[in-house]
Design a protein that fits this description.
The model has no long low-confidence stretch (mean pLDDT 96). The longest helix is centred in the middle third of the chain and has 16 residues. Helix 2 crosses helix 3 and helix 5 crosses helix 7. Strands 1, 2, 3, 4, 5 and 6 form a six-stranded mixed beta sheet that branches. The protein folds into two domains: 156 residues, Ribosomal Protein S5, domain 2 (2-Layer Sandwich); 114 residues, Alpha-Beta Plaits (2-Layer Sandwich). The relative contact order is 0.19. Strand 8 and strand 9 form a beta hairpin. It is α+β, with helices and mostly antiparallel strands. The chain has nine helices and ten strands. Bound molecules: 4-diphosphocytidyl-2-C-methyl-D-erythritol 2-phosphate and adenosine-5'-diphosphate. The site of adenosine-5'-diphosphate has 19 residues, from helix 1 and helix 2. It catalyses: 4-CDP-2-C-methyl-D-erythritol + ATP = 4-CDP-2-C-methyl-D-erythritol 2-phosphate + ADP + H(+). One of its GO terms (molecular function) is ATP binding. Belongs to the GHMP kinase family. IspE subfamily. It comes from Dankookia rubra.
Length: 284
Amino acid sequence: MLREAAPAKVNLYLHVTGRRADGYHLLDSLAVFGPAADGLALAPADDLSLTLEGPFGAALDAELDNLVLRAARALAEAAGMPARAALRLDKRLPVASGIGGGSADAAAALRGLGRLWGLGLGEARLAAIAAPLGADIPVCVASRPARMQGVGEVLSAAPAIPGCGLLLVNPGVALATPAVFKARAGGFTPPAALPAAWPDAAAMAACLASLRNDLEAPAIALCPMVAEVLAALRALPGCLLARMSGSGATCFGLFADAAAARAAAMRLPGEWWRDAGGLYGGAT
Ligand SMILES: C[C@@](CO)(OP(=O)(O)O)[C@H](O)COP(=O)(O)OP(=O)(O)OC[C@H]1O[C@@H](n2ccc(N)nc2=O)[C@H](O)[C@@H]1O
Ligand SMILES: Nc1ncnc2c1ncn2[C@@H]1O[C@H](COP(=O)(O)OP(=O)(O)O)[C@@H](O)[C@H]1O
């Protein structure tokens, strides 16, 4: 039995820089990972199967073509072998919530099956197999901070991220990514100018404050509760920056460290989903 973590992707800023002829949008975004994660367990089997568990497992019962199974089939096809594995997904990330849960699951399946099947494929090869399945999957393959450009598949080094804490909050309303892009009005935003490193969380927050998430306004138009979540985050002690991730509705608060993020999480209304801690694989 193998296990892979599928950490949430958080867009610290997201500029829509243009639009391709096929309608997809060109982006400039800085993605970091965690603190929340789905979990994928993989075992050898004679055919391909997926069972769902965890707090949001039932939300995917009606999903006929889970991204985990699509990723498994795409990898098997690329490797020229039958797709055989018993997969169990512990679904802890809210579905359709701007933190790339489905993409993280697909990336975890590619990494885990690569190991289970002994394929020896590197991250770049897995990301290339992943790209046709979803714009967010390539960045999730490494699950390390990265700058995303193109439609999300052009990855480059992120500035060195200082120790910090994140608080993720979702009001329980699913937002479909295409609907949010469609509701966007106005022009385009140029790519950000980023330093090589930020010395601490406060400096990172000050720099990010000069940037934006261009999908925040259209998401608020579709789901006004996003504005409530942002106001509640901004009012928390120690919150250095509050912003929506991806196409929403999950928002994040940035804190000096994991302990400050966890303490702030306890002060939020009880009915909202939240998770707090340090970055996945990072210093806190
Ligand atoms: C907005 C972002 C930012 O990281 O995150 P989420 O909100 O999904 O987490 C991503 O670009 C989402 O990536 P992903 O969710 O994989 O998108 P896909 O399945 O490829 O596309 C879903 C739909 O979103 C729109 N789309 C997506 C990506 C992009 N660069 N331009 C787009 O216009 C298109 O309408 C597309 O049909
Ligand atoms: N394993 C999965 N987890 C979540 N969503 C999935 C999964 N497989 C397929 N989907 C589909 O992908 C859509 C986007 O899901 P998700 O990745 O959670 O959203 P977002 O990209 O906004 O963060 C869902 O509405 C669902 O229909």
